[in-house]
Specification:
Layout (H helix, E strand, L loop, with lengths): L17 H19 L2 H20 L3 H31 L5 H34 L2
Length: 133
Amino acid sequence: MTQPEKPSQVKPERITGIKHVFAATSYSIGGIKRLWGETAFRHEVLLYLMVMGVFAAIGANLGEFIAASILALLLIAVEALNTAIETVVDHISPQWNEFARDAKDLGSLAVMCLLIANGLFLAYVLFQHLTLT
């Protein structure tokens, strides 16, 4: 009779209470560090900073800055989920599979939709400030 395979790592104990808040913050920082390794994420951060510069130059109002920041945060969240999907798919299926391609394509589509939403908002604000002044 063979012994069941032992896990390579022991699952950590569940953290509760106020310690959970600090642990969750630590996990999020780890996520940002991991995401920083993605070229697309670094490009998205650069684009956000450029948009903020353009908004400052054209005199965008506080609501426009906030809306652009919310859209950028949504983009970052979807980029993180897309990266998570890619990481899991690559682990589960190191070889090419149709399901793997589909999962990655769908994650990419989600990112593209938010890139378009960000671009449309930028175009709207530019139009409002450059044609109505």
